[in-house]
Amino acid sequence: MYSEMVASGELIRNDADSRQRAGADGLGLHAVQLAGREASAMRKAAEIVAAEGADVIDINMGCPAKKVVGGLSGSALMRDLDQALRLIEATIAGAGSVPVTLKMRLGWDRSSLNAPDLAVRAEGAGVRLVTVHGRTRDQFYTGEADWPAIAAVSRAVTIPVVANGDLQSVADLSSMLHASEADAAMIGRGACGRPWFPALVGGHLDCNQMQQSFADLAVSHYDSMLEFYGEQAGLRHARKHLGWYLDRWEAAAASRLASDRAELMRATDPALVRARLRSLLGAAILSDVEPDLSASLRQAA
Description:
Oligomer: single chain
GO molecular function, one term: tRNA binding
Number of domains: 2
Family: Belongs to the dus family.
CATH superfamily of the largest domain: Aldolase class I
EC number: 1.3.1.-
Order of helices and strands: EHHEHEHHEHEHEHEHHHHHHHH
Organism: Aureimonas phyllosphaerae
Number of helices: 16
Protein name: tRNA-dihydrouridine synthase
């Protein structure tokens, strides 16, 4: 289980939210993703999460967000590979025996597709695996992920390469792996509003799970966020996830009223949110909103 991105500077200042994001959840192997611009902070942050039991430390050099890039971290580091290497070396030094991996993009823009160069340097420093999102920073999430461009990284290094970007269906998996020549695939936005999707792609959903109530799943996820973040912060975090669930339902049913959605997004009473979710999503099961699940159920029958 990967953590959310954790800012190294905030973590070493003992920021409560950063500590919470970096904490293990007891669900299995635990990877913590660190981001930062200062080698000393990255080393200290790696020491902290390694001491607290992280199984893997991942370095984020792929986030395209303006706030992150403006702080000279995330994908901004693809414009300065020497600095990127210093951060990688510092993180590995702080991690001790904990393996360090790296997340990146193809480059800053189409004129600087330097992911293969960064991957080679990272491998030389001791990084154990690299994940490449098939877009440049300038693209953000527009256009299509360029899976064939990831193949240049796969050919440049001997460590495992993970392809990322636009994996939206079971059929996409084989196409992505073939085009990218990668060893594995990472799911990102494809799991938004469909947390069952990674298990579906991995072939780990049985027929009973495929027929789980969509409303029950959404409410359970909502309650888990309230429990993890606390009610006030949990309500804020939950809204984007509720929106993704409704998007999934709208795509399947095409019968949602904007006023109902707006009411749900504004609600501050957890009991009202639960009731409204159950009312809106009705008796739908997962296979009603996931074409790949419907196909699997037909095959099982």
